[in-house]
Amino acid sequence: MPAIQPITDELLINAIRRASERVVLISPGVWPPVAEAVAAAWEKLGCDRVTVILDVDPEICRIGYGSLEGIQILQNAAAKQGEALGQEPGIRICVFIVDQETFVFSPTPRQLEAPPGESPGSASLLRTQRSWRSPEIKTPFWITRKSSASDGGPNSSR
Fold first, then answer.
1. How many whole angstroms separate alpha carbon 85 and alpha carbon 52?
2. Which of 74, 73, 87, 32 is nearest to 13 (CA)?
3. Fewest CB within 10 angstroms: 35, 63, 82, 88, which?
4. Could you read off the pLDDT of 18-52 as tens digits, one per residue?
């Protein structure tokens, strides 16, 4: 499997449908087909195995990073699980973690460009087989952990 390849909603939906351990979605917005796949994973895996963090600013929908319908699908799915969507203003990159696969890509503003896969030079993603965290940890370390000079993180002088 190539590390850099075109990304499509179909690619993400198929990965989400195969999920057996966890699904993490961090994105500026979401389109209904992907939202429906994440909602189904929430139902299948349970609330402690699905994490969704979005920028729910209406401007995101206007630009074309997702739709209100997609957000509503996920809000309803979260409510059924007794959860709320995570919200983080200013997100402009997508990170999907599905079991041990990680997808990192720049989303396509669909009001300005055709969806990935529908035009030459469509968006690409970095896809890894290994996750950045072990399966027993529920929150990826890069979401909660602050680096320091002693651990070689970006704030270190190494």
1. 6
2. 32
3. 82
4. 999 999 999 999 999 999 999 999 999 998 999 99
Pick from 34, 37, 38, 35: which is nearest to 47 by CA? 38
What is the per-residue pLDDT for 6? 77
Which tens digits make up the pLDDT trace of 65-106? 999 999 999 999 999 999 999 999 999 999 999 999 998 988
Q: What is the pLDDT of residues 103-119, one digit of tens each?
A: 898 887 766 665 655 55
With beta carbons less than 8 A apart as the criterion, state whether 146 and 156 touch.
no
DSSP string, 54-67: E---HHHHHHTS--
- Domain parsing of the chain, residue ranges: 4-151
DSSP-based helix, strand, coil % in the chain, nearest 5: 35, 20, 45
d(CA 157, CA 76): 46
Neighbours of 44 (CB within 10 A): 14
Considering the domain 4-151, what is its CATH architecture? 2-Layer Sandwich (3.30)
